[in-house]
Design a protein that fits this description.
The protein is an alpha+beta fold and 108 residues long. Helix content is 39%, strand content 13%. The protein has one domain. A hairpin with a 4-residue loop joins strand 3 and strand 4.
């Protein structure tokens, strides 16, 4: 089954999709994103920036999963599928994870 999500072509707040995507992915739904004009939907950049502190919340707005996904160049939804055993790591993703791990170990 598919779920269609219509997003603004001017940008959307990335973390607002995390909760629903968790549930949709866990239930096995395929999620399709569109905009009214057919342009590729884009997250508002600060909504995906782990360094951005939301003034009303006084805390970062991203989750650890989103931060990890950004660091290895995949989507949050991909990480969520891995966590729920709904998808397999590609060789390129495994390589990027190993590179990130090596970088973190070097910075200890």
């Amino acid at each position: 089954m598919k779920i269609l999500i219509v997003l603004s072509e001017w940008g959307y707040w990335g973390e607002e999709l995390v909760g629903p995507l968790n549930h949709f992915d866990a239930a096995g739904y395929e999620v399709v994103f569109i905009t009214p004009t057919g342009k590729k939907p884009k997250a508002i950049s600060v909504s995906m920036d782990p360094k951005y502190i939301d003034p009303p919340l006084s805390r970062p707005v991203t989750s650890k999963e989103t931060e990890f996904a950004t660091k290895i160049g995949v989507t949050y939804s991909t990480v969520n599928r891995w966590e729920n055993n709904k998808g397999k790591l590609s060789p390129s993703a495994m390589l990027r994870i190993e590179e990130l791990q090596n970088k973190l170990e070097q910075n200890k």
